[in-house]
């Protein structure tokens, strides 16, 4: 075969992998959309059901616990029925949740449908990185794995645009009637459309060759590998067999080590927790409040919150461009350092805030610093931890424990997300500047942790993971 033919074949393989990885990443889009869309409807839900802020907060946060549950169970299910089948399960749950959330009778069944959606989010957040890592060639695995995070931030941005467009169509209010339903109901129902697309795509993309080898479906694995790998399929199958160490399905007991779980699993769980303990979701959940604190009218704050999403998307694109060039570890180091400085500046700016009847206002110069530093924090996060954490969780574990370890790491991420989300209001009321300083401290801890404990995975095949 000539050099041009070999290059052409490699290009064809890469194009095929990009398409199926993009299809799998649609679960990430739904992940971002589902977790963000509820924010535009919170006020209207509270008004519609006549409930207080505490019960509304419980209803919204219930989805995060559902996500932890979904992530925890996804690994075992994926090892039994396959990666694509699990995607289909997640898609069906997304559809059911969207319809149920849009047509609740009480706030309690709304909370239940949010939990169902949260389970779908947890499953999608686990299976997307796992599947993409298992079909991607080593040289492109970082960039392809980054599609998950790019899809998440696009989902967040699209949900904000949809909420704004629907509210504008109803005269600017999420509580107003729009056809047969209230506007907030349409906000939640629209999610069924991308969920249906996800279901269709998950039904046509090929199963992971590593799952097929584990299941003894060698001919199917060979066929998939011939479409996604440029090297000899039989050689790759033998590598996968050796890495799996047998055909037995992974159990959680396989993760046990001297200190509870294996050291590599502890590292994965710590990376997953630290990604949330820097407080990134506080910025997204309260970005409109940040704009209002510097004098922006409430009616414009939702639209201006899109600025945060745009910064997030730009940072994610930067990470995609660099993750396979300079590696995972250098990106995390730079990101941790940048987040530490940005969060420290944000806390310093808010130390000059005036709080009257729970409303926070800042003098213009300190408000400008808060907006710039908060935006810088989002950029550094998106260009490093936002992308690299998902890439690492998908690739850092040995093949024989990957699904179970990834499930545990993803569940840890969701539990950390929930902890930050439910503690922020109390911490904000106690001392907002110190709250940001605490997040800055976690960013600094993440820097030392990466330098001390994380091994670079750039350019290594999945079958090499777990070896020295």
Automatic annotation (TrEMBL):
SUPFAM superfamilies in the cross-refs: MFS general substrate transporter
Stretches that traverse the bilayer: 14-33, 53-74, 86-105, 111-132, 144-166, 186-205, 259-286, 302-323, 330-350, 370-393, 405-424, 436-454
Residue intervals of the Major facilitator superfamily (MFS) profile domain: 20-458
InterPro entries in UniProt: MFS_dom, MFS_sugar_transport-like, MFS_trans_sf, Myo-inositol_Transporter, Sugar/inositol_transpt, Sugar_transporter_CS
GO cellular component: plasma membrane
Family matches, as Pfam families: Sugar_tr
Subcellular location: Cell membrane
Topology in the lipid bilayer: Multi-pass membrane protein
An MF annotation (GO) of this entry: transmembrane transporter activity
Keyword terms: Cell membrane, Membrane, Sugar transport, Transmembrane, Transmembrane helix, Transport
Origin superkingdom: Bacteria
Family, similarity comment: Belongs to the major facilitator superfamily. Sugar transporter (TC 2.A.1.1) family.
Protein name per Swiss-Prot or TrEMBL: MFS transporter, SP family, sugar:H+ symporter
Species, as recorded: Actinopolyspora righensis
């Amino acid at each position: 075969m000539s050099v041009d033919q070999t290059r052409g074949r490699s290009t064809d393989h890469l194009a095929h992998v990009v398409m199926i990885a993009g299809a799998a990443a649609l679960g990430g889009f739904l992940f971002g959309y589902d977790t963000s869309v509820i924010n535009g409807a919170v006020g209207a839900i509270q008004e519609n059901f006549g409930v207080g802020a505490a019960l509304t907060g419980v209803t919204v946060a219930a989805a995060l616990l559902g996500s932890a549950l979904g992530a925890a169970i996804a690994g075992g299910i994926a090892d039994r029925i396959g990666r694509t089948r699990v995607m289909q399960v997640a898609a069906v749950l997304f559809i059911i949740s969207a319809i149920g959330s849009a047509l609740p009778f009480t706030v309690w069944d709304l909370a239940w449908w949010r939990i169902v959606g949260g389970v779908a989010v947890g499953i999608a957040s686990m299976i997307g990185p796992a599947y993409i890592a298992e079909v991607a060639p080593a040289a492109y695995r970082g960039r392809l794995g980054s599609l998950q995070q790019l899809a998440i931030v696009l989902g967040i941005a699209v949900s904000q645009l949809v909420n704004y467009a629907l509210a504008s169509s109803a005269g600017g209010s999420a509580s107003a009637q729009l056809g047969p339903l209230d506007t907030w109901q349409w906000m939640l129902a629209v999610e069924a459309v991308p969920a249906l697309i996800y279901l269709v795509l998950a039904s046509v993309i090929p199963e992971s060759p590593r799952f097929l080898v584990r299941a003894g479906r060698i001919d199917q694995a060979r066929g998939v590998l011939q479409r996604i790998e440029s090297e000899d399929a039989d050689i790759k199958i033998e590598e996968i067999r050796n890495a799996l160490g047998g055909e037995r399905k992974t159990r959680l007991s396989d993760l046990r080590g001297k200190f509870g779980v294996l050291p590599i699993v502890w590292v994965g769980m710590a990376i997953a927790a630290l990604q949330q303990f820097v407080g990134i979701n506080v910025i997204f959940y309260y970005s409109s409040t940040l704009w209002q604190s510097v004098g922006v009218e409430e009616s414009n704050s939702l639209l201006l919150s899109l600025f945060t999403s745009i910064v997030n998307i730009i940072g994610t694109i930067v990470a995609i461009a660099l993750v396979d060039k300079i590696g995972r570890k250098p990106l995390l180091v730079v990101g941790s350092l940048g987040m530490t400085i940005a969060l420290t500046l944000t806390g310093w700016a808010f130390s000059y805030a005036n709080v009257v009847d729970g409303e926070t206002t800042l003098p213009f110069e300190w408000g400008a610093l808060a907006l710039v530093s908060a935006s810088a924090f989002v950029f550094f996060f998106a260009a490093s931890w936002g992308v690299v954490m998902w890439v690492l969780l998908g690739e850092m574990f040995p093949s024989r424990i990957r699904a179970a370890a990834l499930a545990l790491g993803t569940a840890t991420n969701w539990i950390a997300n929930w902890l930050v989300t439910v503690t922020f209001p109390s911490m904000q009321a106690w001392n907002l500047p110190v709250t940001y300083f605490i997040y800055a401290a976690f960013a600094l801890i993440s820097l030392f942790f990466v330098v001390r404990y994380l091994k670079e995975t750039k350019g290594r095949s999945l079958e090499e993971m777990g070896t020295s």
